Amino acid sequence: MPTPIAGLHHVTTIASDPQRNLDFYTRVLGLRLVKKTINFDDPGTYHLYFGDDHGSPGTILTFFPWPNAVRGTLGAGETAATAFSVPTASLGYWRERLQRFAVPLTETHHFAEDVLRFQDPDGMVLEIVGDAQAKEPVAPRGSDVPAEHSIRGFYGVTLLVHLEAPTAGVLDTMGLEKTAEEGERKRYSTRSGALGSHVDLLVDPKAARGRLGAGTVHHIAFRAADDAAQAAWRERLSAHPLEVTPVLDRTYFHSIYFREPGGVLFEMATDPPGFAWDESLETMGESLKLPPWLETRRAALETSLPRLTVHPAGDAVVKTEAAGV
Ligand code: ZN
After folding, report:
1. Please, what sign has the CA dihedral across residues 167, 172, 174, 177?
2. 0.85 exceeded by the pTM?
């Protein structure tokens, strides 16, 4: 058995307006912009990374903001919700905060946990889960969210699939075990207790297929402890059998990708080198970072990319265009 997978590493989503995206995640949710770079496959557009103060694996939500992106449709073969962990005692704070920012929300529960459910300005479905096992905060600097209430990172994700067994088979190969079941919702968890250790399958044989676009998740990434663990997992997943890509250098981690049989694109990303290797922990996210092979194009890229401003916390309230879920 390769080194066990701790949980989620990051979740990557398509957005539209980059400034609106930045405002929502930093000013409403209080996350830190830990990296401002470009989409390596489409260098004229941003790739924004949000997370806890250190950009720890298990806290990273990343976006490809395409200003003219058409909204996607949530459906089978997609990530139906991305959930954050906060202490159970912090749910009241978040209910009040989301209402103050005029973000419509619904309250629900999954198994034993109370959940606030809402959407980001592009319609991405988010959840804040009252987590009895919430970690100590690594609170983002500059945020006006009190450290004790800060979003710790991921609780987990919910995948909408037609059938349980094929996706569950892959999760089983990855070392996740079924830990709960309630109607159509089946929970698979790693044993680590780390951030992002839960994957819920929402099984609906009749669900229409989703369509990728703004507000829909492009892929979810799980953690590999290091390159050696990733190589061992690549071998094991290939034998499942799954079609796994070669290792790709994503600058801040090394990645392999495969599509699970339910249709969701999975990635496995290494913990090292992390986000503080090309700028200091103190200044992470402040300047545009480019991979070495694009440095020669820096001047042109900086001119063509839309200007982004990180607004100070606590200034004028952002009116989101989020709709009720
Ligand atoms: Zn990724």
Report:
1. positive
2. yes
